[in-house]
From TrEMBL:
Keywords: ATP-binding, Nucleotide-binding, Transport. One of its GO terms (biological process) is peptide transport. GO terms for molecular function: ATP binding; ATP hydrolysis activity. The keyword Nucleotide-binding applies. It comes from Prauserella shujinwangii. Residues 32-276 form the ABC transporter domain. This is Oligopeptide/dipeptide ABC transporter ATP-binding protein. Gene3D superfamilies: P-loop containing nucleotide triphosphate hydrolases. Transmembrane segments: none annotated.
Length: 452
């Protein structure tokens, strides 16, 4: 292999832990929005899931963690094929689900469960509890008589802690408290004896006081019924309590993935670090840790930042992380909201309206009648700009009628093995090929990570 060839790192490969129950490779789910009614054009593509790979082993709880809009629900639904993925592979017990039509999926549906966040959305208010929980048994033809269905419903209601079960059968979901309703949703999902369950924020809508009890119930049921979970949450404290392994999603991609304790004790991606710094930890050694919350909001998934998608919010971003023209314009605008009024007015007059600048990926051209003064200002103020945008600038060039600021390459970080987990971040063993593509060298990454 030549030096320039990439070293393949298969994200999610798990060594000697046997066959995974679910195996996902390079999964993409893109939504096309808008566009003209006839013909092409005007469309935006939301890359809700954009190249995700992971394995879930029998008996495991795999957590999908990320802020709102990171793609958790879309990923959860895509692996169950409730949303049709755009490309990639989803293998359940070794069988690729991607080419299966809904008709071929139907026999598998009873093995693949989904628990929603909102009990009201998954319970039919017109059915009694007995009818609602028993309904899937009839759909999947798992019972031959009403009496058999009734018996199984009673058993399941008891299992989820709704007892005495008989007293619930003829009541309606609206008669129950939030916690009881969520137990009912769990019962309805588990009545078909699934083996693999995606739980999408199952406790987020509940009062704090009942959350822990519902989570404990889910763990108990997992043990008793040999279940495997993909658990979706935006809450790291919940993920820590429940998950064996975690994938941290950001704008449709995993930034870090590995065993929970590694991610919690020693996070290696700046995004994981900032998420963690926001949660209270009982560990006294870490009480004095500095809170480094990500700046601003998660960007629009239809226009993700170039390079590393997290770079505009990253406290550790440096020159190769994907800076481009728009980042510089945003940083200057941001500066003007922070400096005093006179400074902002003076600088605005010097630079002119930022809307007049020509903004491209690799450069920004500021039109100006005083290009030398503008260039001098950019060179002196640039390094102080918020974030680290100026670190990527390779030149500030004066030309007739304006100044051009040029940016170096900012490739997307590859996935690398770093200290026992997968990380996609240039901080770990950056190797940028001559054509600008980032190639992670696992050995180099490991060495860089341990020396850090
Ligand atoms: N059917 C759809 N059509 C177009 N865009 C969609 C669709 N479903 C989700 N999205 C977009 O995909 C991105 C990911 O959404 P998703 O709901 O999967 O994120 P999430 O992490 O689960 O967020 P939340 O915690 O708020 O539910 C968002 O930008 C969302 O607007």
């Amino acid at each position: 292999m030549s030096e320039d060839e990439p070293t393949a790192v298969v994200s999610g490969s798990d060594g000697d832990r046997g066959e995974p129950l679910l195996s996902v490779r390079d999964l993409k789910t893109h939504f096309v929005q808008g566009g003209k009614l006839f013909g092409r054009g005007g469309e935006t593509v939301v890359k809700a899931v954009d190249g995700v790979s992971f394995d879930v082993h029998p008996g495991e709880v795999f957590g999908l963690v990320g802020e709102s809009g990171s793609g958790k629900s879309t990923l959860g639904r895509s692996i169950l094929k409730l949303v049709q993925p755009t490309s990639g592979e989803v293998r359940y017990r070794g069988r690729d689900l991607m080419p299966l039509r809904e008709r071929e999926m139907r026999p598998l549906r009873r093995e693949l469960g989904l628990i929603f966040q909102d009990p009201n959305a998954s319970l039919n208010p017109a059915m009694t509890i007995g009818q609602g929980v028993g309904h899937p048994l009839h759909i999947h033809e798992m019972v031959s008589s009403r009496a058999e269905a009734r018996k199984r419903v009673i058993d399941m209601l008891e299992r989820v802690g709704l007892h005495p079960a008989e007293s619930f059968l003829d009541r309606y979901p609206e008669d129950l408290s939030g916690g009881q309703k969520q137990r009912l949703v769990i019962a309805r999902t588990l009545i078909t004896e699934p083996k693999f369950v995606v739980a999408d924020e199952p406790v987020a809508a509940l009062d704090m006081s009942v959350r822990a009890r519902v989570l404990e119930l889910m763990l108990e049921l997992k043990r008793d019924l040999d279940l495997t979970y993909v658990f979706i949450t935006h809450d790291l404290a919940t993920a820590r309590f429940l998950c064996d392994r975690i994938g941290i999603l950001y704008l449709g991609e995993f930034v870090e993935q590995g065993p929970s304790e590694l991610l919690f004790d020693d996070p290696r991606h700046p995004y994981t670090r900032s998420l963690l710094s926001a949660i209270p930890l009982p560990d006294t050694r870490r009480r004095d840790r500095v809170k480094v919350l990500p700046r601003g909001e998660i960007p629009d998934a239809s226009r993700p930042p170039a390079g590393c998608r997290f770079h505009p919010r990253c406290p550790d971003a440096f020159e190769v992380c994907g800076w481009q023209g728009q980042d510089l314009v945003d940083a200057i605008e941001d500066r003007w909201t922070k400096v005093d009024r006179d400074t902002a007015d003076r600088e605005l007059e010097l630079l002119g309206r930022l809307g007049d600048a020509e903004v491209a990926t690799t450069f920004v051209r500021f039109p100006s009648r005083e290009p030398d003064t503008v260039a001098e200002w950019l060179r002196s103020v640039g390094p102080e700009l918020p974030a680290n945008v100026f670190s990527a600038v390779t030149g500030v060039e004066v030309e007739p009628g304006g100044v051009v600021v040029r940016f170096g390459p900012g490739p997307e970080p590859g996935v690398q093995k770093v200290a026992g987990r997968d990380v996609a971040c240039h901080l770990h063993g950056v190797v940028v090929r001559r054509d600008g593509v980032h190639v992670g060298d696992p050995a180099e990454a490991e060495a860089a990570a341990t020396s850090r």
